[in-house]
Amino acid sequence: MSAHRPRKSVADSAHESSEMMMPEHANILGHVFGGAVLSMMDKTAAVAAFRHARGACVTVSIDRVDFREPIHVGDLVVMKASVNFAGRTSMEVGVRVEAEELISGARRHTNSCYLTFVAVDRNGRPVEVPELVPQTPDETRRYEAARERRRRRLEERQAERADKHEMEEAQS
User: Torsions phi, psi of 105, nearest 5?
Assistant: First the structure.
């Protein structure tokens, strides 16, 4: 890592978006399609990644997504995103999804997800991103948890490469 790498806070990347769910977002039961929620999550997370990198970023992975409860037509879906961890060229962005019942104002947490982005130049090659400096105990906890998820993802990727290599060797 460069000694001159700039540093940014979590707040520098924070982004919140919302959209009212309409019939075109839903299935015949009036529940919002998971794909509609994933699309919103990706866009919201991308803004946080762009804010951190101040350059083009591409989605490289979306961690497991569990939908805890349905989102209904008429709900306001509120997404809150910020960078949890930044490596040399990649960033983990956490997104929290809440559904607000507009008449009562009641909000419920429907799901959360982690997305990994890589900052890229005009030719699609990875470029360095600023270092992330957590400033609160909660940000530090999220940073450490993200670092551990990153370690596990890298181990899984190495194991997949080794398995692929073994299969190729066995076929030759």
Answer: 85, 0
Specify which residues 109 forms β-bridges with. 98
Q: How far is CA 114 from CA 21, 79, 80, 84, 102, in A?
A: 22, 13, 12, 9, 27
At 34-93, the pLDDT tens digits run 999 999 999 999 999 999 999 999 999 999 888 999 999 999 999 999 999 999 999 999
pTM score: 0.89
Residue 19 bridge partners (DSSP): 77
With beta carbons less than 8 A apart as the criterion, state whether 16 and 81 touch.
yes
According to DSSP, the residues that pair with 63 across neighbouring strands are none
The helix/strand/coil state of 35 is: helix
Structure tokens at 60: 């490289």
Please tell me what DSSP assigns to residue 100. Answer: E
